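Assemble and predict.
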Amino acid sequence: MNYMPGTASLIEDIDKKHLVLLRDGRTLIGFLRSIDQFANLVLHETVERIHVGKKYGDIPRGIFIIRGENVVLLGEIDLEKESDTVLQPVSIEEILEDQRCQQQAKQEAERMKLQVLKERGLFVPRADTLDEY
Amino acid sequence: MSDSEQQQESEAFSPTTRCQGDRESGSEAEDDGGMEECTLLQEMGEEDEDIDLYNEETFGLDLEVRPDEDPSDILVFCGDESPGPPSPPPCTPNTPAPLTQVLPVLNGRPREKRTLRRGEVFEDPAIMRTVKSRPSLKSLDSAIVDSGIGSPCDSLDLDTWMLSPFGPSQTSVGPMLQDQAIVTVIDSQDLARTPPAPLDFLSPLRRPFPMTGGGKRGGQRGQQPLMRPLGQRYLSQIPMSPLLTRSPVCPRPPFGSPQHYMQPGMTVPQPFTPKMLQLRFGARSPSPSPFYSPSANPMQQFRFPGHVTQLHPQHRRLLSHRHQRSHRGENLDPNGQLMSMKEKEWIIKLQMIQLQSENPHLDDYYYQEYYRRLEAKMAEEEMLGERGKREPPKLTTPYVTKTESYTPVVHIEGSLGQVAVSTCFSPRRAIDAVHAHLPEESHFSEQEQKDARQQRLTVLHNIEKLFMVLLEVEEGEKRKRSMFSEEEQVRLEEKISRRVKQIYRQLQHPPNLEDSEEFLPCLLVSKGKRLMARLLPFLSESDAQHVLKVVTDHLPALMNRDTDEALPVMYPSLSTVIGELSFNQLIGVLKGFTSTLPDSKEMCLTIACQNKFGISLLYALLSQGERLLSSNSPMEAGIGDYETWTETVFLVARRLSRSSLVEPLLLPSNLISLFCRYLDKHTVHQLEDSMERSTASCPAVPS
């Protein structure tokens, strides 16, 4: 039940497991322990989950304090449904490797694109934001 | 808290526990120290070492007994460790401490524990385990029950001693026992309830969070129940009897010498458990440490307005119900309730402040409208026969009544002005509301000064109030024009005239100022002059003329005290009034000009010539006279009026030609012709010159 109907508040989300997406593209999963008026979050038993394709890997991170402005979105995780996933957990090393490959491929593609555009005299303007999500 | 403190505390922590469990053994004080250190060492080792939690071997290794050592000799166990760095694999050595498992060495750390009294340590429920390098959130903040630190690795490490009983391998160590006991307790308590999944380490099939990643472990984990690194935290949450009975699951150390653990009569090797009793959890914990709680938040210095300080009862109810409900459900979550009710309320209050509004229907239109429609719909449905639906939850925002209370002006005695005090409710003070300390008054007594100040403030207050009424009047006047129905117009006109009279009366005799001249107190204030200027058009002829008379009568005083040079604002309205004067009335007014002032031999005229407003007024009057005279309409002049008029003109002319003139606001063009009539050419020319000189940039107005 909402304390303040008609408003959004994180109070009800306290002590629940959440998935938080940050502006730098990271995905964190943790128990939301504390909030404040800026929606700064304290996540407990945080795990950074890296997704590559259908695989994911978790890196345990401990306690996270996230500045509110860096949060893109967050949502509660249903603990019962948490395990019903088609995603396949792998080891950290593996996922990091996969991620590296993925990043490389992306960069390569980006580079190629820029190259092609440059040949045609078009320049892609720099992204205004540094948001990676 | 410094690390050393924590360490001390944690050091003291375990020995005591051990002591309690060790009663029969009659452990020595030294052992206490040893135990403290051991705990710490062990923690450190766990932390630093990337141990495979669920690796019994590792675990087992830790508990290997050194053949030459007496396993029960904790001293040996701990003492031996001095040289070793914390990093290397957990305690190779020795003695599987009966209480603890991994006991890496601390670099020559002296055993200081005894310095800390047991009581101290026990008092702080937050001290569960601390690590040298990182302050425990819990130890620093006693409100935090869970002292899980840093990476889950650590906690996972800790869990090694919690885990084994449930793992396939039954090679658990002493510490496991305590967990067993705990588990038993939990089990018995919570059999009826389904504990939240992550905490349910009783159910081997559930995979609690977080999953331990890492290839190392992954494979080995397999289907092992991944225990949440919370296990130990349970200890703090669950009050336990000092004498924990042996749990049904008896841990069997790999090397099979439980006796060692059960050693000197220790029922359960438990560094922490006995302490649990004395720990106060959650709500009962001492006040939160400053560094994170809102109470220390600098924001708190901001004073909530009274009506917001108390959380709305509805919200409070909701919050507490919810809290109770969640609290019951989360009984098993030792990490929960990091945020106390107080903090939640604080945040809600803060959010509510932003919703404050004197006019919610204006400020929060969409919300209000939505709920209005929703309720209307509900009401309709109800009427149509459906059972009265429960009222949709509506947010009750704090409706703010206009804050009348205003922190009084900070006036330091004897200061020249006021201190600029701004708060979030009044960011900018009306600085000019406080009258500047005039130097002349310095010789007055304190009391008189105070009275003067008080009076002035009263006057200002009155003026402000009357201004509001005036604004209403002007507004009404504007609306009148756009009104269609006669009736409404009439009504409006009545209202306007009533208001105007009210202002007039109040200006004439301001309340709270008994013995004052008519209008004068207000006219002495620049805003009062402005008020009068705007009011004049609305006044009846007689009233307006009365005002004019007052102004001219007190002109010297007004001019004298017009520090802001606000008099000219009255000129336009007054000139309009003058324009409607009859000759007789005009003469009456002019008489005031030519009278000598009581204080000096000077004429009001003289002084008027030196003042912009004064001279303009004079010119306006003369111009009016001239106009009247030169017009062909019959004049109702009284006896001696003409004489007075001529006299005045002469006087004025003489005065004007003699003294340098101040530039008037407006120079009526018929003045020259006026003077022409009465004066000789020479004088006229002189006058002309001097007037022109003074009116270089003054607009000439054809009368």
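Chain A is about 20% helix and 35% strand.
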